[in-house]
């Protein structure tokens, strides 16, 4: 798209009310807007990056056999009372509201209850299992503090997948497949080398759960890493001797690090199917509770984590898989001159080839344009100056490394 | 996709708690699930149809020069107090909630305030205008009654576009372009011939607004139609003599009808830019309030309207543009037999050709499969029986008309 048509403006200074690096840079670059503490809007560039993350996760969920749904935010108290999670004492991050008739509703902070209740209408026999159902849907959590930018917010889109299996064996096989999909997601999103499968508490559901923790000074968690085996242990289970037997690692070989939780996978067992009465008839016709798991990733938090891990002192740095555009075409011409005509023509040819390009077609100083281009963080910058316009050979600058490659025009207009 | 892998089941009977035809059929067909009165979940087939509607609208909004964003549900009271729309007396469908510190938040029922406040950071001079910004985003409205299925719900995705223009002239030109885009949307969604541009009250913003009203006995509105000129007048302005001058129609030529409001476009003028201080510097440097408009379509309501207008006694009927799949491939074979192998091979070749096909690969009686296929409403059904498997010529049944066309295999596997 033409940058002259992009409504967002960048800022030189970080907003004074943001302490997290991800929010400072994303606000400066016009990717997001802060509505209030812990609540952000996604602006055109930010929404493109977010949607790229969503598309990448969706591919992996579909490859797992996931079926996509979209559940409601408004939650009836009834099903949550059945699972014992309605009271504010049980779940301390509820946002609640009221219908005109006075009955209380909740804003969904997760969807185990709603989906378990829904599946009762669709699971009858063992032939209806296993099933994997997921969504990308807004969650609401009444966090007391919100200082981590888009990494911990009061409202955020979450990918939550729920698995419905016949028994713990069938569940365990899927759980490992889901774990492998999670590893692919973080690798594809450019943070695979810094992200560790981490043993964590299973809460009230099972002995352990697994988190995916990306090592970063901005993290709120402390983990202990076995780099060689690419496994880690969350501080919350660090003193539990059993975890080392389960993980097959030695406590003495671990290294402490701060980390950001970018995903988690849980064995729920029959916790919710028992509470809400989700059972199937086995081959002998015997009613049996469905064995469940849940698998979460917050695309917004993942986007914030990528910023924390990859951005540099000049601004954002996006991996190609997430970047709002593959190329940033920066014209150094003035409206109507030869350089500007060459840039226009290159933009037009790149678009025809289906290449995603942001075209800085504005009249502004070169230094200003380059600084802004660095801030936006698009992976490759093509500079169109007088020489390039004349020779048809363009300087392509890699944002992450600063490496410059002289590239002939034909290579830039080939899909 | 293989129907054996689809988690949803269909029902023979309409749920007793639904009075609206759209909800009865969509629940029976497994497209949606009722969470509570006025709150629905979208299941895989329903979400596919909804996403097709969203994609169609998005194309038209992008063609208008719209830039997509995603704003928050949680709303700070401050901006709404400035516009005078925070109090429940001013807006009687608020859902409100509270932060831990006790401050009240609203759940967005529309986004004029939020977007106007946001644009203050990005609009400075006349060079920054016009701008067109839109989103697909969940709205929350505390409706007293909710009896129209997915056509009037307490929580729903809305496409809301807001225009920011220099003055009323620039605005008026865009308003007509947006009106033309709306007409294309309803035409592409298969309800163009029943949908009328309708003069309605402009509320507190301007003399008139325009609604798009689809004629249906299920409608909650009463309109008066000039069929020849394809215009209508909402009952609320029927007795206003000025409307006939504006519309260029004769009151005496109008025909009364019930109708469903499927879209609306509003001239907002400077109502919100004045209240929130959104101004730009004109060519002389003089601060001038931005002239605004808003343009809404609820994709879910549009989906419900399509059901109301097109479904028949056998079930749903989708236009191709909205249908979750283009083809319903129904195998009459049994697992492993010749017919089932022919159906498998056809399914595989159609998928390779990129054709969207739901494949009923289940062992079930033909009559049951056909009844279910009618209920699902996919535009074209391909029947694979013994003769088709042998000859390679398949019966393709058009859902809307029942017309049967003998079609050679090669025609079905060509994109």
- Unreliable residue stretches of chain A: none
Largest sheet strand order of chain A: 9-10-13-11-12
Helix content, binned percent of chain A: 25-40%
SS element count, helices of chain A: 12
Distance between the termini of chain A: 17 Å
Structural class label of chain A:
alpha+beta
- Please report the two chains with the greatest interface, counting residues with C-beta closer than 8 angstroms to the partner's C-beta: A-B, 52 and 52 residues
How many DSSP E strands of chain A? Answer: 21
User: What's the Cα radius of gyration of chain A?
Assistant: 24 Å
| Oligomeric assembly | homodimer
Classified in CATH, the superfamily of the largest domain in chain A is Bira Bifunctional Protein, Domain 2
Which band does the percent of strand residues of chain A land in? 25-35%
CATH hierarchy: architecture of the largest domain in chain A: 2-Layer Sandwich
The shape of chain A is: elongated
Overall pLDDT score of chain A: 96
What's the CATH class label of the largest domain in chain A?
A: Alpha Beta
Topology at a glance:
The structure is a homodimer of 415-residue chains.
Chain A: H1 21-28, E1 32-36, E2 39-42, H2 44-63, E3 67-68, E4 74-76, H3 77-83, E5 95-98, E6 104-107, H4 112-119, E7 131-140, E8 155-165, H5 168-188, E9 195-201, E10 208-215, E11 221-226, E12 231-234, H6 241-247, E13 255-269, H7 271-276, E14 279-281, E15 287-289, E16 291-297, H8 299-310, E17 327-331, H9 338-352, E18 357-360, H10 366-376, E19 380-384, H11 386-391, E20 393-398, E21 404-408, H12 409-412
Parallel strand pairs in A: 3-7, 9-12, 17-18, 17-19
Antiparallel strand pairs in A: 1-2, 4-6, 5-6, 7-8, 8-16, 9-10, 10-13, 11-12, 11-13, 13-16, 14-15, 19-20, 20-21
Helix pairs in contact in A: 1-8, 2-5, 2-8
